Amino acid sequence: QDSSDDIEDVSLFDADDDVSRRSKKSKIRHPVASFFHLFFRVSAIIVYLLCELLTNSFIACMVTIILLLSCDFWAVKNVTGRLMVGLRWWNQVDDDGRSHWVFEARKVSAQGGKTSSEAESRIFWLGLITCPMIWVIFAFSALFSFKVKWLAVVVMGVVLQGANLYGYIRCKVGSRKNLTSMATSYLGKQFLRQVSAQ
Prior knowledge:
Oligomer: single chain
Largest sheet: 2 strands, antiparallel
Radius of gyration: 19 Å
Mean pLDDT: 80
Order of helices and strands: HHHEEHHH
Strand order of the largest sheet: 1-2
Distance between the termini: 48 Å
Strand content: 5-15%
Structural class: mainly alpha
């Protein structure tokens, strides 16, 4: 917890004990967390798309969307990341007043078994990556269609969901150097895959 790039063992509300007691056959071990991981972010997108059809009040739409985005930010950062994939991140201020970002990943158990299911992991990462991309598309759409009043709402969506995406990528990958090398490695593999397919 001292440095910003530490990856440490995470105690997730005694989740390790609960997982060992549950049947290994269950694909989604945390159905409520999985539901709320997608509910707030998808609801914000739906409200953004339909709000002009449902009401003429820009303020009501803006407040609803920002509340949904805020609930999503809190739920993903504090609950679903811990339960679904065993990752968490936060900012910690030490006694000297210096700010440290802490990124943690749950270590694999001694038995070698996975503590999170593949289905939950896919749901988590799919929602975490797809929704910020949709908000970026909305940002360009609002900018090029000159809907300046919606630009503030869309930027809020990009910032809140992008912050969670960045935080969890840092948790998964580790330091900034590893993030760059992972991106380079991924792009290299994709290039080789396309070349070998032709």
